[in-house]
């Protein structure tokens, strides 16, 4: 385990600059280390994220304050995360009657593939990266900076921008590269979402009124009003 920890520290922590060592930024790197550890090094480990962070930082005395007050700093980090925009995509099939959704690991609600923007990353770059990581589909040739919906999460107040991608083949083999983040990938009929099923957190997106208010181009309004 000591060799594993040393490898993780070298890969994710020890070379951080002073700005990235600040608690709010540090926890992004700790998260990445945790997912990498589960995905590639020890999938069977049952350590919680909090336990993992404490274990990983243990050899580094400069982080003793954070290790000793992990609950406090984690609470601060969760608040900080709410202000970071999310970018992703609304992936529609060729007949515009189904949308591709993902369910996070150990959760029960489907949503669009999306994630937090990295430092110095554009919204389009973030959406391309997140969709590729979560479902294994390259939207780089289909995405347009002008075609998106923008809204705020009702629960957290977190800003979100979802780029509209039409004409995705249902025959594509979707696979996630984040095995312990995404638990399920599924095509869902939009009419099922519109019925208000609590299994989908995007039911308010697929309504004419909301589309016209949130869409950023006339093309989008035409596309979404066909649904």
UniProtKB/TrEMBL annotation:
Its cofactor is Mn(2+). One of its GO terms (biological process) is nuclear-transcribed mRNA catabolic process, nonsense-mediated decay. SMART domains: DCP2. InterPro entries: DCP2_BoxA, DCP2_BoxA_sf, Dcp2_NUDIX, NUDIX_hydrolase-like_dom_sf, NUDIX_hydrolase_CS, NUDIX_hydrolase_dom. It is found in: Cytoplasm. GO terms for molecular function: 5'-(N(7)-methylguanosine 5'-triphospho)-[mRNA] hydrolase activity; manganese ion binding; RNA binding. Pfam families: DCP2, NUDIX. Keywords: Cytoplasm, Hydrolase, Manganese, Metal-binding, RNA-binding. Its main location: cytoplasm. GO terms for cellular component: cytoplasm. It comes from the Eukaryota. Residues 82-210 form the Nudix hydrolase domain. Belongs to the Nudix hydrolase family. DCP2 subfamily. PANTHER family: M7GPPPN-MRNA HYDROLASE. This is Nudix hydrolase domain-containing protein. It comes from Paramecium tetraurelia.
């Amino acid at each position: 385990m000591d060799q594993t920890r040393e490898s993780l520290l070298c890969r994710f922590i020890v070379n951080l600059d002073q700005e990235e060592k600040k608690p709010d930024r540090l926890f992004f790197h700790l998260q990445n280390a945790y997912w990498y550890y589960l995905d590639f090094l020890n999938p069977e480990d049952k350590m919680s994220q909090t336990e993992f962070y404490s274990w990983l930082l243990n050899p580094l005395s400069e982080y003793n304050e954070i290790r000793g007050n992990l609950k406090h700093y984690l609470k601060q980090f969760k608040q900080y995360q709410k202000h970071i925009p999310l970018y992703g995509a609304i992936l529609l099939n060729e007949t515009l009657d189904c949308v591709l959704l993902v369910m996070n690991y150990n959760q029960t609600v489907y949503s669009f593939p999306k994630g937090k923007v990295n430092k110095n990353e554009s919204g389009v770059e973030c959406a391309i990266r997140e969709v590729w990581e979560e479902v294994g589909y390259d939207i780089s040739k289909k995405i347009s900076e002008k075609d998106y919906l923008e809204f705020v999460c009702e629960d957290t107040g977190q800003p979100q921008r979802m780029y509209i991608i039409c004409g995705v083949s249902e025959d594509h083999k979707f696979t996630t590269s984040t095995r312990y983040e995404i638990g399920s990938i599924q095509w869902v009929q939009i009419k099922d979402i519109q019925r208000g099923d609590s299994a989908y957190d995007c039911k308010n997106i697929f309504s004419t009124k909301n589309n016209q208010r949130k869409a950023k181009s006339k093309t989008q309004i035409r596309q979404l009003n066909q649904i």
